[in-house]
Every structure is written in structure tokens, then in C-alpha cells.
Design brief:
371 residues, 27 strands, single chain, 7-stranded antiparallel beta sheet, mainly beta, Glutaredoxin
Length: 371
């Protein structure tokens, strides 16, 4: 028998009222072993801090402080000219505030370390076991995100967070995570999630956080959905270059690449490359894949000017608030969302160079998102 705990600690409790909706019983359960993982690629691994340029001068300054309050390794130091929060570590004092006479320095997180930036900007170390599964015909990768510790040990904030349920696309071991995405949500005593048109309830997780049991339910009643994932593409609302609302539709029988971008430091050079590569595709290859360019950051007027000056033929749109509804948009640009010719979403975040490869001499032989 699977050893389980209640989610007072791991946020899992049998939801008898909700399970009654499903009418399933044990024959209707999915028992999932999380024997794979997901690595977060969307975290800034550098941390700026400040340290005394002259340690002896700082030690002398402390003797002139109006007051010093010490709690753990955090010092609250009050001078007539202002107050500072500093940390005393093994290699001296540090601060997240800029202090006159202190030097700027950096901490870094190893590229092999799975880490995450929280909504409060704290960065933490995470464990994210996952598994590829098929639920009622819908394929996805499901993961359980556990926050282990602070990414930078000298920082002082409580590590008291729930575990999170993550829903991602099938077969993708790397995902850039943002905590307010629709496909990620905290596990609680009433954890209901949606995949495609189906709803499920999380019944239990074992103590190792490597095995979970879920069950389909007919209706979530009035319980909010913790996380949701659209498996198939639905047209997204945008603005056209005339400033009027429109939608990006997928043509029947064709794949679709939604390329999210901003001018950024390159000034749109990536768009020039994509447009040129797409023009060079044979007509029969263009008939297999559409590319839509959705700008996140710039004005309609600047987009219109850019398109006219560079004779961009690919369709260009401006995102609106509802563009990102269930699209799991990410602030790190550019990236693209891949949709097959049957409408299945293969990835919500794909590296831009992969789209360039798709449109290069390989044509559409590479199947990373459109067929």
C-alpha cells in the first residue's frame, strides 16, 4: 500500500465531496510515478549585493551607530543619516541595499542547479520530479515542485511555501517557470486541476513526493482550479496593426508557430531573419506551417513603421491582456509556441533558434512544433 500523508504538511486530503462528482472509485484512479524531472530555465542566476570597500572603516562606523538590532545574521543598523539592513556572513558583511562606500559584487547559481524566482523576487532551490502521462487521451508532463531552501544561504527569509502542481507539455524536460502562470499552482486541501476539457482531483502524494494519485471528476463544483493546461490550441485575441481587435487562428491542416517578441537590444533583427527564411521556403512547405509574430512590448505605431520600412510579410500583431490567458506567457523574449497541423500544442516555450532551424534548409523535416 502506498504510504501517504495528509496535506496539512504536504497539502493532501481526500476530497470526498469532489470525488463523489466523479463517481469513479479506485478503477478510475491514475497512480503516477514521478520518475523523470523538469528543469527550470527561466531564472536569473546572478544576484547583485554590496560589501564594504573598507572593512575597517565599516567596523569603525558601527561604533557610531545610533542603534544596532541583531536577529540571526541580519543586522538593522541605524545612523543619523539613515537605516540599513546588512547581513553578517562567514566572509564579512553584505547588503542588498546600495551603501555609500560599499562595492558592488555578485553571487551566482550554478547552471546545473534547479532554482526558481518567486513572486517576491526571492530565489530558491527546488526539486521538480515529473512524469509524462496520458489522461483520457490528453498527453502531458505533470510535475510536483518542492521548494527546498534559499538559493543564496546568506539571505534571510523564511522558507515556508507549499508544494506546487505543474502541468506542462509532453516530453519537455526543460521549462521556464513564472509563478503566476496558469499551469502552475499551490497544492492545498482542495487541489483540482484541468487538462484539456477534463478536470481531476489530486488525492494523495507519498512521503517521498515521487508518487501521486489523481482521479477524474465530472465537475469541480465551486472549487477553484489550481492549475490548467490547454492541450489543443484555441485562437488567441490580439490587436492588428490597424489597432483593431482580431484573433490568431490556425488554418485547417496547417501547423502554427506563435512567435512572441519585442524589439529589445537587437531592434527586431530576429524578425528580419524569420521573415527572410519563411519567404525562401517552397510554396508546398509554406502550406504546412503558418508563422504569426506577436509583439509584447512596443506600440502599434512603432510596429507599423518597422513592418513598412522592412517590408515584413509575416503577419504582425500586438498582444493584449487576454492574449496570455492560458497561454502561459513568459517575460523572457523571444520564444515561440508550437502547434501541430492537428491543433495540438507541442510546447509553450521553445527557443527562437529552433524556429530558424525549422525554416532553414531543413524545411519542415524537423518536427519540433508544426506537424
Amino acid at each position: 500500500m502506498m504510504k501517504s500523508v495528509t496535506y496539512g504538511v504536504l497539502a493532501l486530503i481526500l476530497l470526498s465531496g469532489l470525488l463523489g462528482c466523479g463517481g469513479g472509485g479506485q478503477d478510475n484512479e491514475y497512480r503516477i510515478v514521478l520518475n523523470d524531472s523538469i528543469f527550470n530555465t527561466g531564472v536569473n542566476r546572478a544576484n547583485v549585493y554590496w560589501r564594504p570597500g573598507d572593512s575597517l572603516a565599516w567596523e569603525e562606523a558601527l561604533t557610531r551607530a545610533d542603534s544596532i538590532h541583531v536577529e540571526g545574521n541580519r543586522w538593522s543598523v541605524h545612523f543619523p543619516e539613515g537605516a540599513y539592513e546588512v547581513y553578517k556572513t562567514e566572509d564579512g558583511f553584505r547588503s542588498q541595499q546600495r551603501i555609500l562606500g560599499w562595492d558592488r559584487a555578485f553571487d551566482t547559481i550554478s547552471r546545473s542547479t534547479n532554482a526558481l524566482r518567486l513572486l517576491d523576487n526571492n530565489r530558491v532551490l527546488i526539486d521538480l520530479p515529473a512524469a509524462d502521462v496520458v489522461l483520457n487521451g490528453d498527453s502531458l508532463r505533470i510535475g510536483l515542485l518542492h521548494i527546498k531552501d534559499r538559493a543564496f544561504s546568506w539571505e534571510d527569509f523564511p522558507v515556508e511555501y507549499p508544494d506546487y502542481l505543474l502541468l506542462s507539455t509532453y516530453g519537455n524536460p526543460t521549462v521556464p517557470l513564472v509563478m503566476d502562470q496558469d499551469n502552475l499552482g499551490p497544492i492545498s486541501r482542495k487541489t483540482v486541476f484541468r487538462v484539456g476539457r477534463k478536470h481531476y482531483v489530486l488525492k494523495s502524494v507519498d512521503e517521498s513526493r515521487r508518487e501521486l494519485v489523481i482521479e477524474p471528476i465530472a465537475s469541480p463544483r465551486d472549487v477553484p482550479v489550481t492549475a490548467e493546461l490547454d492541450v489543443y490550441y484555441k485562437q488567441v485575441p490580439v490587436l492588428g496593426l490597424d489597432g483593431e481587435p482580431t484573433t490568431v487562428k490556425r488554418a485547417k491542416g496547417k501547423g502554427l508557430a506563435l512567435y512572441f517578441w519585442g524589439f529589445g537590444p537587437t531592434g527586431g533583427k530576429d524578425i528580419l531573419r524569420l521573415d527572410s527564411l519563411y519567404r525562401q521556403l517552397p510554396a508546398e512547405e509554406q502550406d504546412k506551417l503558418d508563422v504569426a509574430l506577436i509583439n509584447h512590448n512596443n506600440t502599434i505605431a512603432s510596429l507599423r513603421e518597422f513592418v513598412e520600412e522592412n517590408d515584413i510579410r509575416l503577419p504582425v500583431y500586438r498582444s493584449v491582456a487576454k492574449t496570455c490567458l492560458r497561454m502561459n506567457c513568459h517575460p523572457y523574449l523571444p520564444y515561440w509556441v508550437g502547434v501541430t497541423n492537428r491543433g495540438r500544442i507541442t510546447s509553450y516555450y521553445t527557443w527562437p533558434q529552433w524556429l530558424e532551424e525549422r525554416l532553414s534548409s531543413r524545411g519542415l523535416a524537423d518536427n519540433r512544433g508544426g506537424e
